[in-house]
Amino acid sequence: MPVQGRLRGRVRQGALVETNRWDGTCGLTLNNQMEEPQLFTFGDIERAPEAPGLYAWYARIYAPAGDYRRQVGEDGVDHGERRFRELLAKHLLRFRLPPFELRGQGTFGASWRGQMHERSSDLHQDIFLARVAADASLDDEEFGLEKNLGRIAKDEKKRAFLARVLTELTPLVSAPIYIGVAKNLRSRLRQHVSLYQGLRDTIGTDKDKLEALKEKVAAEGLSFAQRAIACDFSPDHLVVAVCNVRDISNGQWSDEELRNMAGVAEWLANRWHRPFAGRR
Predict the structure, then answer these.
(1) CA-to-CA distance for 259 and 33, rounded, in angstroms?
(2) Which helix (H) or strand (E) holds 116?
(3) Displacement of CA 61 from its chain's centroid (Å)
(4) Of 111, 112, 185, 272, whose CB count within 10 A is highest?
(5) pTM over 0.70
(6) Quick count: other Cβ atoms within 10 Å of Cβ 239?
(7) Cis-peptide into 37, omega within 30 deg
(8) C-alpha dist (Å) from residue 53 to 50, 57, 133, 178, 262
(9) CA triplet 177, 219, 235: central angle to 5 degrees?
(10) Quick check: 277 and 231 in contact, CB under 8 A?
(11) How many other CB atoms sit within 10 Å of the CB of residue 5?
């Protein structure tokens, strides 16, 4: 029998923040206080709830004032513009999609195997670093981006404003880079942070170790911490949002059952959003 009913609640500042109940044939009653999403950084993971639920890691841009402040050198060049362009270009590279693995098979056992690499990011790097060749072919969108970025990059106040806007985007209009599920959110996130910090300490500034990790991640997938480091995400870039399913269950199920239901939600969320640092 289909579930019929309506969701009662009120909207404040464009978001549903309070829900009374689902009034329908299933008779399900949920907690009437739906909290806004909780965000945690590496430094405050210990404040995460000790409850079952889902979590999503996001990668935000980290733009301290030194990366956009005006600084004119003896050559008359504003090095704040250069640093700001480099900041955006580098963060763009962190989201470059991994290569696709292609395989083919023909008659009599003939087979093919290879990789396809994303090429559009090369042109985007040229745009952000102001090195587009005069004879380069840009479509209307790329031409508009180059023109508008040029105006912004030359103005210290506009650079600072854009940096603020980009920082505020997470997680409002940002896609998660990893979605997971846990019976105890605090414990699971603590594991993520501990593994990340241990691996980062092991690699240090050794470029060979970092390249070896990137190759292993590309071949095997590995854990979130390993993928985050391979993508050059620092703790300053990473924030995690949690959904505490115990809070909205109104005490109707055990933590074990809540974990099982959250697991189904996690499976669906990963296939709906396909976070690029998720399991391959």
Answers:
(1) 21
(2) strand 111-116
(3) 10
(4) 185
(5) yes
(6) 19
(7) no
(8) 9, 14, 50, 14, 6
(9) 35
(10) yes
(11) 13
Which H/E stretch holds residue 11?
strand 5-12
Which pLDDT tens digit goes with each residue over 6-55? 333 333 333 333 344 444 444 555 555 555 668 999 999 999 999 999 99
280, two tokens: 């391959």
| Contact criterion met (CB below 8 Å) for 51 and 184 | yes
- Which residues neighbour 128 within 8 Å (Cβ) at sequence distance 6 or greater? 85, 88, 89, 92, 149
Render pLDDT for 83-132 as a digit per residue (tens, 0 to 9).
Answer: 999 999 999 999 887 777 788 988 888 998 888 887 788 899 999 999 99
**Is residue 153 within a helix (H) or strand (E), and if so which, with residue range?**
helix 140-153
**Residue whose token pair is 């098979």:** 105
112 class by beta-carbon count within 10 Å (0-12 exposed, 13-18 middle, 19+ buried): exposed
Give the integer Cα–Cα distance in Å for 138 and 146: 9
Q: Where are the beta strands (DSSP E) in 119-256?
A: 178-182, 238-244
